[in-house]
Amino acid sequence: MGSNKLNAPVLFLVFNRPDTALRVFGEIRKAKPKRLYVACDGPRVNRADDVLNVGKVRGIVENVDWDCDVKYLFRKENLGCGRAVSEAITWFFEHEEMGIILEDDCLPDQSFFPYCEELLKKYKGNEKIMMISGDNYQYNGGIKVKESYFFSKYSHIWGWATWRRAWNKFDLNVKKWPLIKGNKLPKDFFDSKQEEKYFSKAFDLIYLNPTFTWDIQWLFTCWYNKGLSVYPNKNLVKNIGFEGQYTNTLIKKKFILETPLESMGEIVHPKSIFRNIEADKFTFNRWFKKSSSKIIFELLPLSVQRLVRKIYSRFLR
Questions:
Q1: In this structure, are residues 148 and 233 in contact, taking their beta carbons and an 8 Å threshold?
Q2: Helix 292-299 crosses helix 302-316 at what angle (to 10 degrees)?
Q3: Is residue 4 assigned to a domain?
Q4: pLDDT tens digits for range 131-170
Q5: 239: in domain
Q6: pLDDT tens, position by position, 38-70
Q7: Reported pTM
Q8: CA distance 8 to 5
């Protein structure tokens, strides 16, 4: 199978989707990281399907057939998305100074791994850089640059990498949000009134319900610390969780399905660090420009979203 080449450790976050987990784990196996961490939440209460599928997933990730130091964090009880993921990342950085993070529905191109490894080393000591994203959803109408990547205020986490120094700033409960909101937001916190309206509602909701998710809190962490994300000029990770049963959702994101998986090639670094404001405007308009009801819907757990879709579809019959 060849020799190990990936020195950067990998954290693989899994749960109850053996089909997608198998595909993503196949790409991790090709990359052969020397150190692998696997975290799996426990099955939900009274969900026999969860017991079955979580068991299948754990069987998949236990099949490590390359020279690798592996650590597992298998939960007996279900913590939910917010706690399970954020606590797993904290566990990862208790052991590692920096590393790559993949969830079980995020399918990487093989160039994603050396791309992350090179940039983790390059920006290791730069406090301004909070993370390295593998996603590029500027496809079909967005911004392209000559270099291999640029810098963004947005923290796309469908395949990403970061450092302990950055994650140590994370707070699931966003305790600083009321203070910032109460003292009037800094002028550079939001780019527009629309962005302020959208994310103020999102941060309000997460402050009241912090275990719903973790990625909104991570975005807040990056913004609060005036951090930037490395944003690749090509899409190195494809979210396969929206395929099949996830395509007919109440809120459609067709661009996710349409965006191809690409390969990076030789990395050409930008000469300076500055935020690509035009790309960020495109990101906001494509991802977030929507009503407050849609904001709240997308922050709900998937199980609740499915129930809402069922009710919604009955009214359309």
A1: yes
A2: 130
A3: no
A4: 999 999 998 889 999 999 999 999 999 999 999 999 999 9
A5: yes
A6: 999 999 999 999 999 999 999 999 999 999 999
A7: 0.89
A8: 9
Q: How many helices (H) and strands (E) does the chain have?
A: 12, 10
Question: Predicted confidence band at 112 (pLDDT cuts at 50, 70, 90)?
Answer: very high
- The alpha-helical segments, DSSP class H, found in 96-214 are 112-122, 164-167, 177-182, 193-208
**Residue 170 backbone dihedrals phi, psi, to 5 degrees:** -70, 140
Q: How far apart are the first and last CA of the chain?
A: 53
Q: How far apart are CA 197 and CA 218, in angstroms?
A: 18
Cα torsion through 293, 296, 297, 303, rounded to 10: -150
Residue 187 to residue 215: CA distance in whole angstroms: 23
Does residue 152 form part of some domain? yes
Checking DSSP bridges between strand 237-239 and strand 106-108, what pairing results, if any? antiparallel
CATH number at residue 157: 3.90.550.10
Q: Is residue 93 part of a domain?
A: yes
Domain range for 254 is: 10-316
The amino acid sitting at 47 is R
